[in-house]
């Protein structure tokens, strides 16, 4: 019995630790990338985010010194605008978002928000100013309403419903027998990837941060769901300074600026039409994706006919 209770106790402890750790999706992202070397500097002040202008200035970064990941990246996201980062897998796109959250620090160069170096401000205040819609959302074993409310506990019922409406998940929720009180997660109703992402969007709308990071899902959603998610993301991005980490191209067409990152260097920048006219890396990526989409559609039509 002693032998059995030991692992059970241990598992209980781990369970409690994990449960405690799952404070918030942003927190979870934080825990996954926790870096104990990064601490607040003595006398660090809270970030004063007003216009929320984000700037990367000649940022060099490597996880390991022998393998540079970012090699002099500079760009800015003007107040309320959307900048999308595209590029091949492993180019360093998600690394940019990790640096913005200050899970890591650049080896040289700096990142500022409204002119304040993010390395010099209190980390809590930095992370409170940034909302994250992650690739894969993990829901708490609680009601769907609880999962949205996590964005801001003080929010009223009306505000919560408004956030759900903007995220286009309201009708789905209202169609459930228990509505907002429906249990979800491991022990409750299982939601699809697209539904979970819309819950995350509603939560972020409720949190209302001035800066937004959208780490787009790599997994292909069907085109109807993709359109719905895109509409919801466009709404949440409206009026916020937004950085989109795009793993597919369909979502970046309307971005104010698109940066093409390749092996840690920005090789092209511009808006969608301008980049297509250039006929460079972006145009090639776009054509390849169009061909892949067309092939997928043709396959689907053939399957439907069978
Ligand atoms: P994808 O589109 O596939 O998600 P990405 O452009 O977002 O790729 P990053 O996640 O930024 O790429 O990774 C850039 C490079 O850094 C990759 O080669 C990756 O293997 C490496 N890398 C990422 N995280 C770490 C880490 N914690 N330690 C060491 N290397 C890492």
TrEMBL record:
It comes from the Bacteria. Residues 293-306 have a biased composition (Basic and acidic residues). It is found in: Cell membrane. Residues 54-288 form the ABC transporter domain. Belongs to the ABC transporter superfamily. This is ATM1-type heavy metal exporter. It comes from Methylobacterium dankookense.
